[in-house]
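User: I'm putting together notes for a lab meeting next week and I want to include a structural view of one of the chains we've been expressing. I don't have a solved structure, so I'd like a prediction I can at least talk through. The sequence is below, exactly as it appears in our construct file.
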Amino acid sequence: MLNLNKKHRYLLGCSYGPDSMALFAMLKNEGYIFEVAHVNYNLRKESTLEEENLKAYCANEKVEFHHLKVLEPFKGKNIEKACRDIRYTFFKKIIKKRQLDGLLVGHHQDDLIETYLMQIRRRNLVTYFGIREKTIINNIRVIRPLLTFSKEELVEYCHAHNVPYAIDKSNLTEQYLRNRIRHQIVAQLTPQQREKYLTEIRDKNQNLEAMFAKIKREKYETNKAILRLKEDEFLYALVFKGRKLKPDFKLSKKQGLEVRKIPASKKANVAV
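Assistant: Thanks for the context. Below is the predicted structure for the 272-residue chain, given as C-alpha cells.
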C-alpha cells in the first residue's frame, strides 16, 4: 500500500489526527521501521490528553515516541507559521540525533486539491501546483506517502483497523479560507470531479516543468534576454531567478507585470 524503502528508518510527524494515525497504522502493519514525533502547541484544552493517548499508543505498539510541549504563548505572531517553524526545527533535531532517513507526514489527496484551489484563488505564481510527494524542508527530506488517499479513505482505514484518533475542532470552523474550501468544495466532490482536478494539476505541473527546463536551458541571464520572453515565460523566469536567491520567494502576476514595465518606463525607478 505504501511505496517506501523498508531499508530506511523514518520519523513520522504525528498530530494524533486521523491522517497521521492512519499512516502510523499502515507503517506498522506493513513492517516499516519508524519513530514518532508529536508537538503539543498548548492551544487547545484537549491537546494534553491527545499527547498522553499518543504516548500510550506508541508504548503499546513498541514505537519510539518523541514529544515537545510548547509553553511560550503565541501572542502577536502568525500562529500557523510559528507552529510550522517549531515542529520542523524539532523534527530536524530528532532526525539528526537518531540518524533517521527522512520525515513522513500525513498530507492526503484532499490537502493536495485544497492547496491547488488556494493557489488558483491567490493568483501567486507558483513553481509547483498542489503538494509535492517528496521535498526538502529545513534541510530535511520530507515524504508524503498518502497523496493518493482521500480523507474519507483514511478515516475508514482507522475505523477498520481500530486505530484511535482525535479531531481538531478548529479545523471544523469556516473562519479560514482553507477550511471553507475544504468543507464547501473538496468534501462535496464526486470521484469524477476529483479526477478532473487531479488531471488538471498533473497537466499544469508538466507545463511548468517544460517551461522551467526551457528557462534553465536558454540561460536568460540579462534583463534584455528575459524581456524577449512571452508573458508567462517572463513571469516564471522572474520566479525561477527569485527562488535561487530566496527559496520562499513569492510573486503575483500583477507584481510581475509591473516589473516588466520598469525597463520601458522613462521615469526614475526610485521605488524599485
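A couple of points you could mention at the meeting. Confidence is low (pLDDT under 50) at residues 268-272. The beta strands are 9-13, 33-40, 65-69, 102-104, 124-125, 134-137, 140-143, 251-252.

User: Perfect, that's what I needed.
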